[in-house]
Amino acid sequence: MFLSIIIFIVSIIPAVLVFILLKKRKSDDAMYKKSCNSALIRGLVSVLPILAVSATLHLLNNLIRVTLLRDMNILVYRALYTFVVLAFAEEIVKYGVFKLLLRKKYYAYTWADVTAFMVIVGTGFGLIEDIPYAIGASPIVMLIRGFTMGHVGYGFIMGWFYGKRLFTGKKRYGVIAFLLPFLIHGLYDFSLSEELIALNDDLAFIGISLAVLDIVLLILLIRFFVRSAKKERYNTPLITIDEVQVS
User: Fold this and answer.
1) How many Cβ atoms from other residues are within 10 Å of residue 108's Cβ?
2) Cα 110 from Cα 35, distance rounded (Å)
3) HSE-up (13 A, CA, CB side) for residue 111
4) What's the pLDDT tens digit per position in 123-137?
5) Which of 14, 117, 159, 191 is the S-S candidate for 39 at Cβ 3.0 to 4.6 Å?
6) Residue 237: phi, psi to the nearest 5?
7) Which residues touch 133 (CB under 8 Å, ≥6 apart)?
C-alpha cells in the first residue's frame, strides 16, 4: 500500500511540473498567473460535469441499443461507448470550461497563452482522473499514465488550434480544436478495450502507437513553448486592452 502511494506521487510529478513551468512563463504577470490558476481549478472540477454528461450519454447509448439497435455487435457497442460516452463527454466539457475561461478576459492573452491555458485544463483533469485509475493498478500502469499524460497532449492540440482560430478568425480551426483530440482520445480508449484485443492480439499496436503519440505531443509541446517566445504571432494579443477593461 505504502509503495503504491509513493509510485502514485511519483507518477503525478510530471503533470505538476507542467503546471509550474507554464505558470512561470510570465512570472511577473499577475493576470496571467491568475488565468493559469483558474485553468487548473476548472480542469480539476471539470470531472463533475463530465460525470453528469457521461451518465446521460450512457443512458442514451443503452436506450438506443435496446430499441433501435437490439442486435448491435458488441464491438460496435464498445466503439460507441468509448467514443461517445467517454471521449466525447470528457473533451466537450474540457472544451467548454476552456472557452468559459477565455470569456473572463482577465487580460490581453496571446496564442501561446491560450495554448498554455488549455494544457493546464487538461493537466488538472488528468490529475483527478489518475486517482481512481491508480486504485488497484500496477506500478507500471501508474507510471505509464503519469509520464505519457494523454490529457496534457490533447489539451495542447485543442489549445493550439483554438489559438489559431482566434488569431486567424477562421472558425474551422475551432472545429479542428475539438474534433482532433476527440478522435485521438476515442481511438485510444477503444484500442484498449477487451473486445478489440479479443478480435486480434495484433491490434494492440494501435494502443501502443497512440501511447507513443502522447509522448510525441509532449515533445512538441515543449518545443512550442521554447520557440514561441521568439515568434511574434504567438505573442500578439488576441483581444485589446479596452475589451479587457470594459469586461
Assistant:
1) 16
2) 12
3) 23
4) 999 999 888 877 777
5) 117
6) -55, 135
7) 141, 142, 145
- Rounded (5°) CA angle 211-96-245: 125
Closest alpha carbon to 221 in 15, 3, 11: 15
Residue bearing cell 472540477: 45
CB atoms < 10 A from the CB of 177, how many?
25
CA distance 78 to 85: 10
The rounded distance, in Å, linking the Cα atoms of 176 and 93 is 16
- Helix or strand holding residue 237 (H, E): none
pLDDT digits (tens, 9 = 90+) for 49-105: 998 998 888 888 788 777 766 666 778 888 888 998 899 999 999 999 999 999 877
Q: Return the C-alpha cell found at 230.
A: 521568439
The amino acid occupying position 181 is P
* Count of CB atoms situated within 10 Å of the CB of 126: 26
Cell triple for 90: 470528457
Cα torsion 30, 106, 50, 215: sign: negative
Please, which residues have CB within 8 angstroms of residue 86's CB and are 6 or more apart in sequence? 54, 185, 186, 189
Grid-cell match 467548454, residue found = 96
DSSP 236: S
DSSP 138-155: -HHHHHHHHHH-HHHHHH
Q: Looking up cell 504571432, which residue turns up?
A: 233
DSSP H helix total and E strand total for the chain: 12, 0
